[in-house]
Amino acid sequence: MTDLMQVLASGVLMGLVYALISLGLTLIWGVVEIVNFAHGDFLMLAMYLAFTIYAAFHLDPLISLPLVVIALAIFGVIIHKFVIRPVLKAPMLAQIFVTFGLMIFLRGMAQFIWGPDYKAIPDPLVSGSVQIGGVYLSLPQMVAGVGSVLGAAIIAWIVYRTELGRGLRAVAEDREAASLMGISPEKMYIATWALGAGSLGIAGALLVNFFYVFPEVGGVFGLLAFVTVALGGFGSVAGAFIAGIIIGLVQMSAGFFIDPAIKDIPVYLIYLLVVVLRPQGLLGEF
Amino acid sequence: MKLLETRGLTKRFGGLLANNNVDFYVDKGEMVGLIGPNGAGKTTFFNVLTGFYKPDGGQVLFKGQSVGGKSPEWLCARGLTRTFQVVKTLKGMSVLENVMVGAFVHARNASEARRKSEEILRFGGLYEKKDMQAGGLTIADKKRLEMLRALATEPDLLLLDEAMAGLNPSEVQEAVALVRRIHQEGVTIILVEHVMEVVMPLSQRVVVLAGGEKIAEGPPDVIAHDPVVIQAYLGEKYARRRQALGEL
Amino acid sequence: MARRIPRQAWALGLFLLILLLIPLAITNRYWMNLLITTFMFVSLGQAWNWVGGYAGQISFGHAAFFGLGAYTSTLLLTKFGVNPWLGMLAAGVVAIAVAFLIGWPVFRLQGHYFAIATIALGEILRIGFDNWEWAGGASGIELPIMESSFLHFQFFSKVPYYFIALALALITYGITWWMTNSKVGYYLRAIREDQDAARALGVNPTKYKYIALMLSAMITAFVGTFYAQYILFIDPASTMALDLSILISLVAVLGGAGSFLGPLLGAFLLIPINELTRSFLGGGGRAYNLIIYGALIMAIAIWQPGGLWELLERWRKRRRGRKQEVTHEAA
Ligand SMILES: Nc1ncnc2c1ncn2[C@@H]1O[C@H](COP(=O)(O)OP(=O)(O)OP(=O)(O)O)[C@@H](O)[C@H]1O
Ligand SMILES: [Mg+2]
Q: For residue C57, is it within any domain?
């Protein structure tokens, strides 16, 4: 029983992080109409960045978080300018391969700079766990869960409650119509990349407190983000959270009750089932 | 003889009735005009006839056989094909290759398909451009190519969805001439068109859709004077233009 | 025009002759290995090209077929003593069967959804084999050493491997030739360009995607069996990983997706780069490889989506154009 509670708790906490990660992906997908295969690798960069700041200056990731967010946002904009913009009107093959190439490139760079092995923060500011009713909750994971909800709330607020957000949604709805209304799609793309990549800065700085970082770490997170988007329904914040939590729970249960080595298999199966049987996802609009 | 017939054809999108209980037919060798205001359900009707959508109710009979729910490729192989309102050029292929894809429905091998396609391109006046990338054609040529490509499948019935929209007057004249010649080759045609001046002289019979329903049907000159049609479809604009032209 | 076709035939004949004579000229095992690997990737890249290039269904999961090929023949050999040549046929059958099964879900998907589904399927298979102890698990299987003979599909010399790899590449190109000169090739390209237009012209997209995927799976599995017999060791990491799927697709895309010669060009450029970085930079070479691949893929996608093939074509056309100008002036 406590085992089950334990699994539920960590599944939910991880799910919240997945939800935040997937929001950036949907945002870019929706507004810029580019599917970023390197999404998880942006997260990897954020984790390494937080780790490096820690290693160099002993600044805890929770403190350097704003720096990481800003750095990631700038990085996102640079990638947009030099890598994405040239293929915005290109055929599907070029669009898929450009971010795929970026993914491989970033992994190679990470391995070149930080080496292939696993790195972790030895003594994070928040560590240990609290016990509630026999269930141990890891504190860094709780911080990550709460932080993810806050991060997602900020993004949702920007998208749904601000002038900028109205512009973003207008471009996502219909590029031409938006530019006729005087909204510059290019400006909105830049804002989207800054937001989308910046949100990964939050996730990365939160994750690195309890998760190893290594060059391929983005692979799984990237795929999980795709699965979350597919399951939650494209462009739905609530859907992202429901899907993120479902995925976290499935993953943790499979890992706990079957075998940690296969914990991603049910997640991939969910992706295949959803895109084939219910392409609009749980809460999707179309 | 009825080549194609629908009985009570209905197509819904959620709560929207895009086609509501439409009875329609076209005789072998006819050229029928299908008109109606924006959003009347004309393209939807074509999509159902050609198998891109499954009907929600009613029947589609082609050559006397019930074909509702059959796939586009199945229908094409049996002589029913279409062009698209928004051209769907196979951009990365040459003009000749575009036509060859159609020709392969009946051609046994590539050289036969090529021979036939070149003949069709000559017939349709695109032979000189046969080696061009189809994506580089003008919009008029793209629409022409789409008709020729469809012709290469040897259709008995060809559905043209706004084959002349977006063309300038001289291009329209050329397109009209091509449609006539295709019809003279023995192909039965249903023509969706916005430009009244084009549909009326081409069609032997006109069917009017509005709000998903068939509201009128008859010879072009009768339809052009039908008050229901003028009210629902032609509207103020056309009535005024007719007065201005002082025609008829 | 009349002069160009015999000239091409000449070039083809000469090329084949050189390929046949190469083992006489090159005895160095390192270079032979490089050529054998390159031919393997000619086949793999071209087989990918049928699906990803001609039909435009971008797969990042082709390593699955390769791994299935390697594992089918190897497990049959090590567990049941089945001859590897028969194992190769069985590998083809297994790959076709798997292609048939996954075709049903994945062919409903398009674009990114399709690509991600292929990654997911490939990963499911790899993780599965990693944890399947009977099949060697993550530590893999060593093939038993047998006497060097054609019957056993094992040789001390690299020359027989060279000819088998060459034969596989020729078969693959034979299929491509048939495809591009028949309805199938035209239909696949039509599906890539616009599936609805293709359907209106009588093309059944599912049927032709199936043809492409099944053939592709079969050839990829054959090469997988060949690899197992050549290296005599297989594990999920080297035969099923995403890295391999990427390399396969990259060979085709670098050379020119959807072109006849593209995968050949791509393999002859990329595989030597790959092997050189690996042998000169050792284990750390992987980082360089990733950086080079990544940069190459981005560069191609941005500046040259048609790949090397298109670059050559453009260059040839320009040259021909200039020649025509000269003859015009002369006349
Ligand atoms: N795939 C679809 N999903 C939902 N609604 C649709 C779909 N296709 C068409 N509709 C709706 O059905 C109605 C009929 O559309 P349709 O395209 O058939 O009209 P049309 O007569 O061809 O108009 P136009 O002259 O503008 O081409 C419209 O209200 C349209 O918005
Ligand atoms: Mg329409």
A: yes
Protein residue with least CA distance to atom 29, ligand 1: B39
Enumerate helices (H) and strands (E) in chain B, giving the number of each: 10, 10
ipTM: 0.91
Determine the residue of chain B that is closest to C178 in CA distance.
Answer: B110
Token digits of residue B171: 């291009």
- How confident is residue C62, by pLDDT bands cut at 50, 70 and 90? very high
Q: Which residues pair with C229 in a beta bridge?
A: none
Would you tell me how many other CB atoms lie within 10 Å of the CB of residue A190?
A: 18
Only one residue has tokens 């090929």, namely: C69
In order of start, what are the domains of chain A with their CATH numbers?
2-91+100-114+136-277 (1.10.3470)
Residue C166 lies in a domain: yes
Q: What angle do CA C48, C51, C55 make, to 5 degrees?
A: 145
Inside any domain, residue C111: yes
**DSSP-assigned letter for residue C145:** P
Provide the β-strand partners of residue B205: B32
Chain C CB within 8 Å of residue A117 CB? no
Residue C252 lies in a domain: no
> At how many degrees (to 10) do helices A39-57 and A2-32 cross?
110
Tell how far the Cα of B43 is from the centroid of ligand 2, in angstroms. Answer: 4
**DSSP structure class, residue C134:** G
Nearest ligand (C-alpha, residue B209): 1
* Type of residue at C105: P
The number of domains in chain C is 1
Q: Do B93 and C190 touch (CB under 8 A)?
A: yes
pLDDT grade for C331, boundaries at 50, 70 and 90: very low
- Sign for the CA dihedral angle at A186, A187, A189, A190 comes to positive
Q: Which domain holds residue C230?
A: 27-242
- Which among B12, B13, B160 is the best mutation to test ligand 1's pocket, defined by most ligand atoms within 8 Å of the CB? B13
Structure tokens at B4: 């194609």
* Helix, strand, coil share of chain C (percent; to 5): 80, 0, 20
C303 phi/psi in degrees, rounded to 5: -105, -25
**Cα C248 from chain centre:** 6
> Do the strands B31-35 and B188-192 form a parallel or antiparallel pair, or are they unpaired?
parallel
Phi/psi class of residue C136: alpha, beta or left (left: φ > 0; alpha: ψ in -120 to 50)? left
Q: Which residues of chain A have pLDDT under 50?
A: 286
